[in-house]
Design a protein that fits this description.
The chain has 219 residues and is an alpha/beta fold. It has one domain. It has eight helices and eight strands, in the order αβαββββαβαβαβααα. The strands form three sheets. The protein has a three-stranded mixed β-sheet with strand order 3-5-4. Strands 6-7-8 form a three-stranded parallel β-sheet. The longest helix is centred in the last third of the chain and has 31 residues. 28% of the residues are buried.
Length: 219
């Protein structure tokens, strides 16, 4: 919780304003605590998620990594949460002269939100966009692919999270993406190589454990 926020607040990135949108009440409390501990008046925590309109929806497994507006089999909890029109918020708060970084990791809401931003033209205000397609966790691959196609055809400067966010923590992953957008290919490449090396090592360990099990003599 708050790792992304902790990274973007670092002076090295030089952001003038920072907004974090969070619909889960307990998470809002924790984010407010983090901001207060840094005494950073650039940051505003908005107690709502993004959607294609102003509404309230049920969020399953709130606060968990697999939180989603989609149905989750065996969900342990749910919370009625507030969501706001992403395009409406952009229209009121962001100008064409602003340089905008947007990280979308919004519990399977990304297709609806991106569609709304594209339809209204508000997406033209975004200079650096990274998207987590959480909707695929609900098996909606066709929706994700259709949105990828729309983004590519609209010339939106976007990247998919799994292509530019590498590292052990959300803080490291966010740093890698920001390094890319700021032209720091060295920082990006180092994190990417470390990620790939750790993946190869993990795969080797898995294979070794499987080999050990199959090679164990039977009694």
């Amino acid at each position: 919780m708050g790792e992304t926020l902790g990274e973007v607040m670092k002076p090295r990135w030089g952001f003038d304003r920072i907004w974090s949108f969070e619909p889960v009440r307990e998470c809002v409390i924790e984010l407010d605590r983090i901001v207060a501990s840094h005494n950073d008046d650039r940051v505003t925590i908005v107690p709502a998620g993004w959607w294609s309109s102003d509404t309230e929806m049920l969020l399953n497994n709130p606060g968990a990594l697999n939180a989603s507006i989609e149905e989750i089999a065996g969900a342990e909890a749910s919370e009625q949460c507030r969501f706001i029109d992403a395009a409406g918020w952009m229209a009121e708060n962001i100008g064409l002269e602003d340089e905008v970084w947007l990280k979308l990791n919004i519990e399977a809401s990304e297709v609806a939100v991106l569609g709304r931003l594209l339809d209204t033209g508000e997406i033209d205000k975004i200079d650096h966009l990274v998207v987590h397609f959480d909707v695929e966790l609900a098996g909606k691959f066709s929706e994700a692919n259709a949105m990828r196609k729309r983004l590519n055809e609209s010339d939106v400067p976007w990247r998919e999270a799994n292509r530019v966010m590498f590292g052990r923590t959300q803080e490291a992953k966010t740093s890698t993406w920001l390094a890319w957008t700021n032209g720091s290919r060295v920082g990006f490449s180092l994190n990417m190589m470390e990620h790939r090396a750790r993946r190869v090592l993990w795969q080797a360990r898995v294979k070794a454990r499987r080999w050990a099990r199959t090679a164990r003599p039977t009694r």
